[in-house]
Design brief:
The protein is mostly helical. The chain is 77% helix and 0% strand.
Length: 70
């Protein structure tokens, strides 16, 4: 029987792999993969713009963290 700790670890590994696969996509590819009829952002272009903005914010935040650690 799988322990709770093992189950959490296995779920974390799946999440890490999924995030790595998603992050390896271009913003356009990620937007196309995320879009579905009825999506709240309506168009692939809008989703792509959001992904670009989120990735830029993540890069900016990681730079701030590096500066504060120095």
């Amino acid at each position: 029987m799988t322990s709770r700790r093992e189950a959490i670890r296995a779920a974390a590994l799946v999440l890490v792999e999924a995030c790595a696969e998603r992050d390896a996509l271009s913003p356009r590819e990620a937007a196309e993969a995320a879009w579905y009829p009825g999506h709240r952002l309506v168009t692939v272009d809008a989703i792509e713009a959001l992904i670009i903005r989120q990735r830029e914010e993540a890069i900016a935040m990681s730079g701030k963290q590096l500066q504060s650690a120095a």
